[in-house]
Amino acid sequence: MSELTTVARPYAKAAFDFAVEANAVDTWLEMLVFAAEVSKDDTIKGFLSGGASVDQAQDIFLKVCAEQLNSEGQNFIKILAENGRLSVLPQVVTQFGELKAEHEKTVLVDVTSAVELTADKLTSISTALEKRLDRKVKLNCSVDVSIVSGLVIKAGDMVIDGSFRNKLNRLATAMQS
């Protein structure tokens, strides 16, 4: 998987730089997401891995994506096809999204709680995280009753585990030592 990420990085960066220059980041993200979904289709995967020529791969991919790609997006797909890289489109989308978030100074934060959080609680969590991370925060909330109480907050590499389950696990580990 890390090899695909490495291969996708320069394509994502080039597409992002072009999108920023053209002031069309959201448009490019939509195009790339659609193309990535097409590349994940089993029929398309089979066609691409079945030894299709560059021209065949370009033609079939562009026909499927025709209405969803502008001329620059079509050129991007052609470049990927010429280099045999259509299969890395999902990783290109992931990295493009990360570049977009960095550019906009936003971060997606996963918040897991034992119960549904109130709007006031979500606002206070969001405000505190915006201060701590110096970014605009988008919360992705979920409920997991197995954490018993408290919160588990994940933002990129940062994890804040204030759950009761985690505290019990640490207590059990300390008692066994």
Strand elements, count: 4
Q: Any idea what the CATH superfamily of the largest domain is called?
A: N-terminal domain of the delta subunit of the F1F0-ATP synthase
Query: What is the residue-mean pLDDT, rounded to a whole number?
Result: 90
Helix run count:
8
In the predicted model, the low-confidence regions spanning at least 5 consecutive residues are none
Using the coordinates above, name the CATH class of the largest domain.
Answer: Mainly Alpha
What is the architecture of the largest domain at the second tier of CATH? Answer: Orthogonal Bundle
* Rg on CA atoms, Å: 21 Å
Order of helices and strands: HHHHHHEHEEEH
How large a portion of the residues is in β-strands, by DSSP E?
5-15%
Give the CA-CA distance, first to last residue: 37 Å
Q: Provide the spatial order of strands within the biggest beta sheet.
A: 2-1-3-4
Structural class: alpha+beta
Which term fits the overall shape?
A: elongated
**Could you say what the CATH topology of the largest domain is called?**
Peroxidase, domain 1
* Oligomer description: single chain
* Helix fraction by DSSP (H/I, runs of at least 4): 55-70%
